[in-house]
From TrEMBL, chains A, B:
Example of a GO MF term: DNA binding
Name the record gives this protein: Transcriptional regulator
Domain HTH hxlR-type, residue spans: 26-124
Pfam families: HxlR
Entry-linked InterPro entries: HTH_HxlR, WH-like_DNA-bd_sf, WH_DNA-bd_sf
Organism: Streptomyces olivochromogenes
PANTHER family reported in the protein's UniProt record: TRANSCRIPTIONAL REGULATOR, MARR FAMILY, TRANSCRIPTIONAL REGULATORY PROTEIN
Length: 140, 140
């Protein structure tokens, strides 16, 4: 890897500051609302594998209550990330699948997951070093 | 845009299921821990603009307490995302800057922010439609 290449990858992205409530809209708060919601992300990841019924989602996602899953799929449907299909059977069958917008978000979730895996060893080493040099910092 | 192209972009990413605590490690839980923490993301975004002192970070990020900022920069330093520099002045000056690992994460945060902005109109329209057709769903 050439020094020039290292220099390029070390550059942070060109991000607008967003620490103030009244800052110009940069999309970061939206991101935090969306990706910060663990259940939404887990439902999106599960649906990346294909359409699922409600019970299948509930079984696939440890610890999610029926009420929380109901709210989560409604929010995702409301945002246009998930499509709910009702089949005219008796009893009616319902399944959920990602819309094109929802599917596009999975690629970013995957990029983040890949980033985590790629940097896991470096982060673990950094934590080890930090804990050695700051034995008094209880921040875990 | 050709139908073939639409089909490709509509494909979700190839993500392992991760709804179970004991699922094979896919990085998603790490992502949720990291990006799910609003203060960490806001500090990283602020530092994308360059090195900052503690007080500068505190001023830049609305609503963060001194204790929460202390914890947040320590966690980021422990993870090797932020480097803390102490200058041998009297009184000592301290600043914080992104490491190469931290800088690489800003590109993903930016990709997420860009995704939000790109899809904002579609999402707003989906919400409008949903609220029209489900006036009884109070999920906001």
């Amino acid at each position: 890897m050439s020094p020039a290449h290292t220099e390029v990858t070390a550059q942070p992205a060109d991000l607008d500051p967003c620490g103030h409530e009244d800052h110009p809209d940069c999309g970061i708060r939206d991101v935090l609302d969306r990706i910060g919601d663990k259940w939404s992300v887990l439902v999106i990841v599960e649906l990346a594998g294909g359409p699922r019924r409600f019970r299948e989602l509930q079984r696939a996602i440890d610890g999610i209550s029926q009420r929380m899953l109901t709210l989560t799929v409604r929010r995702l449907e409301r945002d246009g990330l998930v499509h709910r299909t009702v089949y005219p059977t008796v009893p009616a069958q319902v399944d959920y699948r990602l819309t094109e917008t929802g599917a596009s978000l999975t690629h970013l979730v995957k990029a983040l997951a890949d980033w985590s895996l790629t940097h896991r060893a470096v982060i673990a080493e950094a934590r080890h070093q930090y804990d050695q040099t700051h034995p008094d910092h209880d921040i875990r």
